[in-house]
Design brief:
Number of helices: 2
Order of helices and strands: EEEHHE
Number of domains: 1
Strand content: 25-35%
Strand order of the largest sheet: 2-1-4-3
Shape: globular
Helix content: 40-55%
Amino acid sequence: MPEVRFTLRWPDGLEESCYSPSTAIKNFVSAGETYPLPDFLERARTGLNEASNRVAAKYGFACSSAMSQLARIEFRANQFAGDEDAAVTCLVVDG
């Protein structure tokens, strides 16, 4: 199953490399796009859950790496929860 790495720029300017176990995430985030934080979170949840489900369909178990990545994204996003203008930019999607 082809994995995908995608790089995010958080509202504070920090960049983070992220992991998806399948190309499913490409249906939800695109390189060069900026998303309002709530929209990005919904896209990340949907994409990483779909990626994990693809792993489950192929191997018989969900992908703990996808769920760990989602947990890290949600933890980081909580730091900007009070900022109505917070947005996340997807810089790169490789894979």
